[in-house]
Amino acid sequence: MAKNNQSGSRAYLFGIVIVAVLGGLLFGYDTAVISGAEKGLQAFFMGATDFTYTDFLHGFTSSSALIGCIIGSAISGLLASSWGRKKSLIFAGIMFFISAWGSMFPETMVLAKGQPNLTLLIVFNIYRVIGGVGVGLASAVCPMYIGEISPSNIRGMLVSWNQFAIIFGQLVVYFVNFFILGDHIAPVISSVGNGLNQIMNGEEATWAIETGWRYMFGSEMVPAGLFALLICFVPETPRFLASIGQDSQAEAVLAKINGADKAKSILKEIKETMAVKTEPILTYGLLCIFVGIMLSVFQQAVGINAVLYFAPRIYEAMGFDNPMVLTVFNGIVNLGFTCVAIFTVEKLGRKPLLIVGSLGMAIGAMGVAMTFGNEALNLYCMISLMVYSASFMFSWGPICWVLIAEVFPNTIRGGAVAIAVAFQWIFNWIVSTSFVPMANSLGYWFTYGLYGVICVIAAVFVWKLVPETKGKTLEDMTRLWKGKK
User: Fold this and answer.
1) Could you say which of 35, 73, 79, 480 has the lowest number of CB atoms within 10 Å?
2) Cα 70 → chain centroid
3) Of residues 393, 398, 404, 390, the one with CA closest to residue 295
4) What is the 3-state secondary structure of 318-364?
5) How far apart are CA 225 and CA 149, in angstroms?
6) Under a CB-based contact definition with an 8 Å cutoff, are residues 17 and 161 in contact?
7) Phi and psi dihedrals of 190, rounded to 5?
8) Separation between Cα atoms, residue 352 and residue 350, nearest integer Å
9) Per-residue pLDDT tens listing for the chain (485 residues)
């Protein structure tokens, strides 16, 4: 016990972080569940008689959770600053659970089960938006929570575990969707023009249309309930406790993590930068906010979610007859390369990983642009897509979240993170909704060529404007941005 008092308990710290990253797992789970469910969902609502379920409506329904993500991230600063980081995460867990239940049974206690109509579509989308609010909150508050509770020498690694959890959540749901579908046949949707579609194998795909998509959405209730329960047992972050005058509780948490002696010096440094609880968002200059926003914009503008959300459709369009298997394999590759970031971010730093990853993504995206549609080059196209995806996973995937959690001064962090993450979800929505029409009208060569060019611009942005935060305390950011004003 004496050893823990002097040096802190790593087991205690890791236990807290494991619970917190469950929010990241739910983030990944909720955003990727649509990839397996969307075809059955589309075929189900195509059976409605009171309206026509067009490609536009399906695109909106597939991405409606992103509306909630924008809302959740936008209010995350207000909730994190007023409720605290812990209570905000509890609220996010409750939103996840409500969304999972409602998306599985949108007819609950009101509408007739299994009868698609416009009212049911609206209710379904409301439940998806509720889940999106949880995702938006978790995406902003989870890395903030981990960043504020972690020692500076391993903070980057621990925040990176949040991205690992996001990718792991996506991989888990790929497997869950795969096993839920089992021997059943996914519906084949064929376009007949003017935004209208027809089901090619409707009778054989009856189970997937009526039931399969429900189980896929409902499966999220298990991790959502677990997260909402376990987060009740973790402490509030020392920096938030200090900001509301609860210094003794803050020091107690710091002592458990860092040791009693070091806790006093850390708390003293925190208090020095907390002389003012909050400051105007532009206190440290426009550049500080601009860098945070553009980190978020580039993380989405490089186009990765076009792969994560539509992977089965992309592999099918390449000509492969096993798109779900390739999607699962791609998820495994993504998880492996996320580990590269976790184990190198404290050695190599944030900027080198971002720059190398950007260039790797550019090469992969250009490879897809040059080979897509050529049957003889299908293998090279698949490899290029995986290079593109893997390069994101050791760079922009985790490192963007690390920097957003680190780069802002204490007194503006809540609001600044909320602004940055809101831009992230806005551009996520732009990329997700523009991918299919852009690829169909302008071609995959143009779409991935554009993503490749954006990747190169992102590398230049990081090189010129993003500060290296490796080894710096969160309080160092206050001094850094004051020096740049």
Assistant:
1) 480
2) 12
3) 404
4) HCCCCHHHHHHHHHHHHHHHHHHHHHHHHHHCHHHHHHHHHHHHHHH
5) 24
6) yes
7) -115, 130
8) 6
9) 444 456 678 889 999 999 999 988 988 898 788 877 888 888 899 888 999 888 778 878 888 888 898 899 888 888 988 899 999 999 999 999 999 999 999 998 788 888 899 999 999 999 999 999 998 898 889 888 988 888 877 877 888 888 788 888 888 888 888 888 877 766 666 555 555 566 656 566 788 788 889 999 999 999 999 999 999 999 999 888 988 888 899 989 989 988 888 888 888 877 776 655 567 777 788 888 999 999 999 999 998 877 766 666 677 777 777 777 787 788 888 888 988 888 888 888 889 999 999 999 999 999 988 988 787 888 888 889 889 999 999 999 888 888 887 888 877 877 888 888 889 888 988 887 777 778 777 888 898 899 999 999 999 999 999 988 887 776 777 777 876 76
Is the separation of the CB atoms in 21 and 405 below 8 Å?
A: no
Two structure tokens written together for 191: 């376009």
Tokens standing for residue 297? 């914009």
Tokens of 222: 């298990």
Token digits of residue 379: 């293998």
